[in-house]
Amino acid sequence: MAELEKEIEIANKEVEKHGKEVEKVKTKSEAAEPMTKEEVDAIDITIDKADTQITEEVQK
Predict the structure, then answer these.
(1) pTM (predicted TM-score)
(2) Rounded to whole angstroms, how far apart are CA atoms 41 and 30?
(3) Would you place residue 33 in the very low, low, confident or very high pLDDT band (cuts 50, 70, 90)?
(4) pLDDT, position 28
(5) Backbone φ and ψ of 34, nearest 5°
(6) How far apart are CA 2 and CA 4, in angstroms?
(7) Distance between CA atoms of 60 and 52, rounded to whole angstroms?
(8) Cα dihedral angle (40, 42, 45, 49), rounded to 10 degrees?
(9) CA angle, 34 as apex, 31 and 35 as ends, to 5°?
(10) Strands (DSSP E) along 1-60, which ranges?
(11) What is the largest CA-CA distance in the chain?
């Protein structure tokens, strides 16, 4: 019985720790705004070193 209580206590501490981390993220993201279409469009999605062996085989 004591072992089970100890496991429950450990689990409760982990849940409490997780809850604190969740609250930190919520606080950081409360004022966050979604990116505009212009911001998304401005993201550079260029792929460097695209000519790998695999892409060369596909191009054949």
Answers:
(1) 0.42
(2) 24
(3) confident
(4) 79
(5) -65, 150
(6) 5
(7) 13
(8) -170
(9) 125
(10) none
(11) 68
Q: Per this entry, what is the length of the chain? A: 60
- Residue 38 pLDDT: 96
Tell me which residue has tokens 């695209």.
Answer: 50
Model confidence at 59, pLDDT cuts 50, 70, 90, reads low
Tokens of 17: 């720790």
Q: Which of 48, 25, 10 is nearest to 2 (CA)?
A: 10
Distance CA 20, CA 15 (A): 9
pLDDT of residue 52: 63
And the tokens for 58?
């596909």
Residue type present at position 47: I
SS3 label, residue 33: coil
